[in-house]
């Protein structure tokens, strides 16, 4: 009897604890990699506008696309379920969205690493549901796309 | 074939418009990937299987759009847009569309 209770209660708690420990480590590592790569692309700006001041005439343009699917850990999912009762900002999910967007933009840049600038960046977010249904919350795909432009060589 | 998502191809004037071209694909996830993703869901982070699946489908939608543009005799597609919509549980449609043009 008590063994059954232990198992039925223990497994979710274990998943939450594992999610908390491993999940926060994964997140920290991901942020480190994002910041490192963002500094790498520091002099290749991304614009969300179509018009921009090109220092030199544009020689070539091509489409750059990057996307990522990210999910939150069980701990955050658990915390957010409390938030769903009282309402208000779900802070545990904002880092998920932030990571996904920055990663997608970085991948877009990495798909055309030698471009001088990226213009007309569009970000699109969609949720992914599992085949069994309502597990959609917590897993999102972010797509970033734009036009990579190359300037003429400096005179 | 040049693809851009702005209104022109910089440095190359448009000589002819061919109108809208589009390509789409509907993909379902398969069970194996869903299971692996379910495990990954515990700790969070990137679900690589899904990332690849969606990248493949997007590439296919894009190539169908490019094929359509090629049939019209275009050599560039401008103002390319991507959209995703879920048509059924576990399946999603990916659409790529743009304007086929001929540039110098």
Give your account of this protein's structure.
- The complex is a heterodimer of chains A (155) and B (104).
- With 155 residues, chain A is α+β, with helices and mostly antiparallel strands.
- Chain A has a single domain (2-151), classed as Hypothetical protein apc22750. Chain B (Translation Initiation Factor IF3), CATH 3.30.110.
- Helices cover 47% and strands 25% of the residues of chain A.
- Chain A has three helices and three strands, in the order αβααββ.
- In chain A, α1 (2-40) packs across α2 and α1 packs across α3.
- The model of chain A has no long low-confidence stretch (mean pLDDT 84).
- With 104 residues, chain B is of the alpha+beta class.
- Helix content of chain B is 37%, strand content 43%.
- Chain B is built from two helices and five strands.
- Chain B has helices spanning 31-43, 48-72; strands at 2-3, 14-28, 45-46, 76-88, 91-103.
- A four-stranded mixed β-sheet of chain B has the order 1-4-5-2.
- In chain B, β4 and β5 form a beta hairpin.
- The longest helix of chain B has 25 residues, at 48-72.
- Chain B starts with a strand and ends with a strand.
- Chain A binds chain B through residues 15, 18-19, 22-23, 26-27, 30, 50, 57-63, 65, 67-74, 76, 96, 103, 119-120, 122, 124, 126, 128-131, 133, 135, 138-139, 141, 143, 145-147, 149, and chain B through 2-7, 9-11, 28-29, 31, 34, 37-38, 40-48, 50-51, 54-55, 58, 80-86, 89-90, 92.
């Amino acid at each position: 009897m008590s063994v059954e209770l232990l198992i039925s209660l223990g497994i979710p708690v274990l998943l939450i604890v594992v999610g908390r420990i491993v999940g926060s480590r994964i997140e920290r590592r991901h942020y480190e990699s994002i910041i490192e790569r963002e500094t790498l692309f520091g002099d290749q700006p991304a614009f969300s506008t179509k018009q921009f001041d090109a220092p030199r005439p544009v020689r070539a343009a091509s489409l750059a696309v990057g996307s990522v699917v990210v999910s939150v850990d069980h701990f955050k999912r658990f915390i957010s379920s409390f938030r769903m009762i009282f309402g208000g900002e779900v802070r545990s999910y904002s880092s998920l969205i932030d990571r996904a967007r920055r990663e997608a933009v970085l991948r877009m840049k990495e798909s055309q690493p030698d471009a001088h600038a990226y213009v007309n960046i569009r970000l699109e977010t969609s949720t992914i549901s599992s085949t069994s249904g309502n597990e959609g919350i917590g897993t999102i795909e972010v797509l970033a796309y734009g036009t990579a432009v190359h300037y003429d060589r400096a005179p | 074939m040049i693809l851009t998502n702005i209104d022109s191809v910089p440095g190359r004037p448009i000589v002819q418009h061919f109108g809208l071209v589009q390509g789409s694909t509907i993909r379902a996830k398969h069970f194996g990937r869903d299971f692996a993703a379910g495990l990954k869901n515990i700790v969070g982070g990137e679900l690589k299987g899904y990332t690849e699946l969606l990248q493949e489908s997007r590439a296919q939608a894009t190539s169908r759009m490019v094929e359509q543009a090629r049939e019209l005799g275009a050599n560039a597609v401008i103002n390319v847009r991507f959209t995703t919509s879920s048509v059924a549980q576990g399946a999603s449609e990916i659409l790529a569309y743009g304007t086929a043009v001929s540039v110098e």
